[in-house]
Amino acid sequence: MTATILVVDDELDLEALFLQKFRRQIRDGLVSFMFAHDGLEALQSIANNPHVDLVVSDINMPRMDGLSLLAKLQEAEDKKSTIIVSAYGDMSNIRSAMNRGAFDFITKPIDFADLETTIQKTIRHIEVLREAKRRQAEAERAHASLSRYFSPELAKRLAAAGNGDDMEVKWRDVSIIFTDITGFTSLVEAAAPEVLAELLNEYVGGLTDVVFAHDGTVAKVIGDAIQVLFNAPGDQPDYATRAVACALELDLWAEAFCRRWKAKGVNFGATRIGVHAGPALVGNFGGSRFFDYTAYGDTINTAARLEAANKALGTRVCVSAAVANAAKNFRGRPVGDLMLRGRSEPLRAYEPLSEASFEAPATSQYGEAFAKLEAGDGNAMPAFAALVGSVRARDRNFWTTLGPAGRRASPSPLRDAGFERTRGERPRLRRATRCDLLSG
Predict the structure, then answer these.
(1) pTM: predicted TM-score of the whole model, two decimal places
(2) Cys-Cys link to 178, which of 95, 307, 310, 413 (CB 3.0-4.6 A)?
């Protein structure tokens, strides 16, 4: 690096003296000099040559003295490090200069060996400042990129770390949330572009805010669907608990969103949510040119299929036993053992509930009826019938989906949800029972 030094002094013979004393450094490309004869000329020179690294300035000059120049330099956004030259013993001006931001000072007559040492020290200081600014700018760029995926606090922490270790592809135990909107394709075809843009931006922004409030990672946004990770990239021992809490809050926000837009005359479909936990390959899969922090593996596929299973089960949120068992104080009800495409064993699924819904008498009755169904008790169906009858008078917004133990569920939505078939037309939905009961 060649340091550019602006010397400001009204003594005309000083220019030749500087060039002669620093000829070796100039020849070796270590420094280059520019000269001005007063403060105003110096400011104009800096305006024309913003690459000036440091200023060496006398105090007593016509038009604008060195102290006034120093004040102007400190007001600029790019504050130039300044060495003040003053007559020996002029301590009052030297103190004024240091108080106004001068980096150092030397006295006249100039000791050029001392000046060279002072210039070298100042250049090292400038390099430290520039490196700090470079790192800050780099961190700000990293933070801006990371903020697309991570909560503000997590993005700040990752940007500050700067070593990239948390971004490397590795196997991690994670909780994954998948969301999707019912009937979104039809809405896209029917809605005006400006309405769709406003609607989708508000929707994705709102869901992302909910995810960030739980310190989740938004791995993907694909149209109306989002994919969320917990326990990646940072460690979150309570990742299953966070995922359940986040899923419930996403459901509440999405339902309120639907009501707001319905009042505007837009029928926005329900948001279906699937949650699963297990090992996944997580990291930046964007290569050297792109940043694509996401996850792959069977755990991810299962979460997506649980999201789709909501369509057949009549639920909006469906979580696996892996999540329900790992979450602290999980509140929910079983909806059945699901045979999902690509899996050889049935997967127990649950519908998470709010505390009020979980404490409602109907939930306890549901649990008793489901236990009978699971045990093959012949009284299971009357228990469900009694439960349905108890809520019919309170609300007509209910339905039941019964698996092989009761009436056979429609094969079409099951096939859409990713279920397999066995023994001809019978869908492999084992002991899947669902009652949509309102609490209170």
Answers:
(1) 0.62
(2) 307
